[in-house]
Design a protein that fits this description.
Blueprint: H1 7-15, H2 21-39, E1 42-45, H3 47-60, E2 71-75, H4 90-93, H5 104-111, E3 115-120, H6 154-161, E4 167-172, H7 178-184, E5 187-190, E6 210-215, H8 218-228, H9 246-249, E7 258-262, H10 272-287, E8 291-295, H11 303-318, H12 337-348, H13 351-364, H14 369-390, E9 396-400, H15 416-420, H16 428-432, E10 436-443, E11 449-455, H17 461-474
């Protein structure tokens, strides 16, 4: 099955003319049509255009870039010109919103010949940790269809793991790439804030949102990053820091590397299988020549609380544009202006979006701004300082992606706080703006994937990718596939 190839493998076969781009793309389409009824990872299919692009590339006969002719899927928050984009929310779905412009990252991928096949499911406006808040319904974990794939990039992770594409794009605000990658057994990269352009990607929390790939290997993630990263005049938050050299990353070893083990990430209540898998991974790194050192990140305990003040505050601001006048679902018959807004937003937004808008509006209101938002920003500064100090002692920090394996769909219905606590190991990195990589490191007794998180300093993608690649060269957890 050609859709099971990695990007590197497919590029080699395309260059050698062992396969055609059309055959590779058709293999992914066939796989989507065969398995996605069970998984529900893809919410919009753009197969005709994808095949036409593949045929054009074949006719030219050139594959100058590793991503030329490679089929991929895109989270349904990335704008693609002329392609419906809904953020899996009825407020845009009911309006049949079609962007008149292209996001920078999808444009860069298409410029080197990568082929977009469609949109993947996500929590509504990326608000959720399980892909259950989508207006299209839940995505299912390919390893156990009764369990969540994680969120909010659950559709991208499930699609990649089940070989419906060779890679997918996602967004990570508070773990939305890393948690699905850990739950689904693929590789997910959250980049340094400002590494990749957010232009054309629907915002949830503008000071926390980042763009990144979900891939089958670290090598593939490195290849995608080399294309999507870099300064963008359309996004003033991007930096002109040099893009990591993929060839350099993939040829280095980790002998002499200093790896930090923070006690705050190894808490009581962690599932035994997760604890054992991460301990085994640490031993593997030591066998590869790295040294480990116990460190402390003392303000980690406050990260979830601070995140779930700052994030809803930014949600409250960003969601204001979806009012049925500038964007979104419209009511033709209404009474007062207040009645119009109430009906538009009540009918268009789901419960989680409404919840975060209300929390954020409350925390930003006069009399509460200082007590909540300002205090949360002070905690954010303390979390940043923890990481800055830690990275003077170590090169990377290891932790589990989650203290638990993927939870059952519906397990946290009616209990949003329990859902928020699933992000306990994933909220501090966005607060500090640092990169983090999720890679497979084992399976539970229930045959569910376990993810390992590798954190690096700001602009430290090269060191975390080098670390992850070395681990994948020494293990084969990332090669295991679900039976579908």
């Amino acid at each position: 099955m050609l859709s099971s190839l990695t990007i590197a493998q497919a590029h080699d076969k395309l260059k050698r003319k062992e396969i055609s781009c059309e055959e590779l793309t058709q293999s992914c389409i066939d796989r989507i049509e065969h398995v996605d009824e069970k998984i529900h990872a893809v919410v919009y299919r753009n197969f005709g255009s994808a095949l036409n692009k593949a045929k054009k590339i074949d006719s030219e006969g050139e594959f100058p870039h590793p991503l030329t002719g490679i089929p991929f899927l895109v989270k349904d928050t990335f704008s693609e010109k002329g392609i419906p984009t809904t953020a899996c929310s009825n407020i845009l779905r009911n309006k049949d919103y079609i962007p008149p412009f292209e996001s920078t990252v999808t444009n860069r991928l298409k410029d080197v010949g990568a082929i977009s096949m469609g949109k993947t499911n996500t929590d509504e406006f990326t608000m959720g940790g399980s892909t259950e808040t989508s207006c299209y319904g839940s995505t299912h974990n390919p390893w156990n269809l009764s369990r969540t794939p994680g969120g909010s990039s659950g559709g991208s992770a499930a699609g990649t793991t089940s070989d419906q594409c060779l890679f997918a794009l996602g967004t990570d605000t508070g773990g939305s790439i890393r948690q699905p990658a850990g739950f689904c057994n693929c590789t997910g990269l959250r980049c340094t804030y400002g590494r990749n352009s957010r232009y054309g990607v629907m915002s949830m929390a503008s000071s926390l949102d980042t763009i990144g790939p979900l891939c089958k290997t670290v090598e593939d993630a490195t290849l995608v990053l080399s294309v999507i990263a870099g300064k963008d005049p359309y996004d003033p938050t991007t930096s002109d820091v040099p893009v990591p050299d993929s060839s350099k990353i993939l040829t280095q070893n980790i002998k002499g590397m200093r790896i930090g083990i923070a006690k705050e990430y190894f808490t009581e209540g962690m599932q035994t299988d997760v604890k054992n898998a991460v301990a085994d991974a640490i031993r593997t790194f030591e066998e590869l020549g790295a040294s480990t050192e116990d460190i402390s990140l003392p303000h980690t305990q406050y990260s979830v609380a601070a995140y779930y003040i700052i994030c809803p505050c930014e949600v409250s601001s960003n969601m204001a544009r979806y009012d049925g006048i500038r964007y979104g679902h419209t009511i033709l018959r209404h009474g007062s202006l207040i009645d119009y807004y109430e009906r538009v937003r009540s009918e268009g937004f789901g419960p989680e979006v409404k919840r975060r808008i209300m929390i954020g509006t409350y925390a930003l209101s006069a009399g509460y701004f200082d007590a909540y938002y300002r205090q949360a920003q002070k905690v954010r500064t303390l979390i940043q300082r923890d990481f800055l100090e830690a990275f003077t002692k170590v090169d990377v920090i290891l932790s589990p992606v989650s203290p638990n394996i993927a939870f059952p769909i519906g397990a946290h219905d009616g209990d949003p706080v329990a859902m928020y606590l699933e992000d306990v190991f994933l909220c501090s990195q966005p607060m500090a703006g640092i990169p983090a990589l999720s890679i497979p490191c084992g399976f539970s007794s229930e045959n569910m994937p376990i993810g390992l998180q590798i954190m690096g300093p700001q602009w430290g993608e090269e060191v975390i990718l080098k670390t992850g690649h070395a681990y994948q060269q020494a293990t084969d957890w990332h090669r295991k596939k679900p039976s579908l």
